[in-house]
Amino acid sequence: MTTFDVTIPVLNEEATLQQQVRTLHQFLQLHFPTPGQWRIVIADNGSADRTPLLGKELAEALTEVVFLKVPRKGVGLALKTSWSQSTADIVGYMDLDLATGLPHFLEAFQALTEGGYELVYASRLHPKSRVINRPFKREVASRGFNLLLKAYLGVKFSDGMCGFKWLKRDIFQDLYEAGAQNDGWFFSTELLTTAEWLGKRIFELPVTWTDDVSSSRVEILPLAKRYINAMIALKKKQP
């Protein structure tokens, strides 16, 4: 039996946390009914609202849910903390808004368990992907960022930013040592970059992705500045 942990990094998500986690829980319970095969890890990284309280309530109510308090803000830090404590065969994460259609997890799981792949990432830029409700400026920013990645770091993957990635846990330490160490959102891109550098077997997954504009807190210009600085730092680690 292949075990897996689904980590959900959260920050001030009291409005939707319980509903979304229960939706995910029901989906996984339906498709993976074997007790002990999986966990949902709510990784709280600095919430100042009722998110920690609600997360703990979910962990008490649902056997497969774990609440993890991360010492400070940072999606990358939340994921590193969760995965470094995991004993599952597969680790990965998705955003709380469940923007990537949940059935795609079944495809990712199959690619890792039967397809011989070591890392699976969702791509909104794959020709077969379907992107719904995405504002024009965010689409332009995403494409621009990914073009910059290819030009500056010489990578081949199409979408470094999509919050839906899965990997065999036994390669995580290799990726970390190769440079996947950022505490923020750029960690997601570092996973793919270092996996390419190390020659890991990567599967690009076309997905249906629905942008939840109402819940987005992303400010494009400050984020772009942080990403560029992180990109420059990562370039120095390139073999």
Automatic annotation (TrEMBL):
Protein's name in the database: Glycosyltransferase
Keywords recorded for this protein, A-Z: Transferase
Biological process terms in GO annotation: protein N-linked glycosylation
InterPro entries, per the entry: Glyco_trans_2-like, Nucleotide-diphossugar_trans
Pfam annotation, one family: Glycos_transf_2
Superkingdom of the organism of origin: Bacteria
A molecular function (GO) term: transferase activity
Glycosyltransferase 2-like domain boundaries: 6-175
Annotated organism of origin: Phaeodactylibacter luteus
